[in-house]
Amino acid sequence: MNSDIIIYKNPNGSIKIDVRLEEENVWLTQDQMATLFSKAKSTINEHIKNVFAEGELDEKVVIRKFRITTRHGAIAEKTQEIEVNGYNLDVVISVGYRVKSPQGTLFRIWATQRLKEYIIKGFTLNDDRFKTGTSMNYFNELQERIRGIRLSERFFYQKIKDIYTTSIDYEFKAEKTIDFFKVVQNKLLWAISEQTAAELVYRRVDANLPLLGMQSFDKKKANPIKKSDVSIAKNYLNEDEIKLLGLLVEQYLAFAETMAQQQIPMYMADWIQRLDNILQLNGRELLTHAGRISHDIAMQKSGTEFDKYKIVQKTIEKELSLKEIEEDIEKIVKS
59-77, pLDDT tens digit by residue? Predict the structure, then answer.
């Protein structure tokens, strides 16, 4: 079974669906629908049963038997052929209108837009497919986006965030996405410094050091230093750590482009697993705990050190002002 459906947002925020057809139709197993809508197979099975029980679709018409090769359940490294049900596009659409998930919501938005277009115009077209004559246009878009990210001059963390926006299940404001970025940030920081973001800030911020201990902070771009600057973990990385971070991120970006070229769709959970693989290949230790310093404790200390720094700075500025006044008086006397 080579049928695929991909629900995604393009860079300008438009929701799209890309389809690879088999015999002019789409046939998905329950496992494939579970992946498509980011739900458990048992949930998909329950929705399908309800579709048939309510008489929405005729079970005899929309199901086709397929033989697929899968791993043997009892014997390692052995495969077996099994027969599975393939469900056509009618079933996929019905399930898409029932399932509750971010992907299900995207599908309903797309489908409603198409339905509205059809009601108003009397027809609807897939413009991209019509213009290019190709299927799975998603991966062409994906490759172009990743190449642009690799060539950009944005800082390494921002490139990583840009990569994750290509995830099929990425949703900007979702709590899952925010937590995901925190996990990724801590995994990378731990790999290069054996410290989480909170630990880096807590252990390296010091009002008595130049720039409060921030070694990679560009004071030319932000002068004077703001309180928010001293709470950002990457600002405390040293030169060697920054170089290592850059190398790891470049490998990650190269991997992303490879996945796009092979037309392998990536979900956020897939990116986490692949990041672990890349870190291990580089001999880096994986983060397996939440860290010994909480975010709140780190923010409290960075705030305290910043307040100390501001007091010192005000004293210095006052002394400089007095010195300038003395110099000006001296010039007047001499004249």
Answer: 998 998 888 777 766 666 7
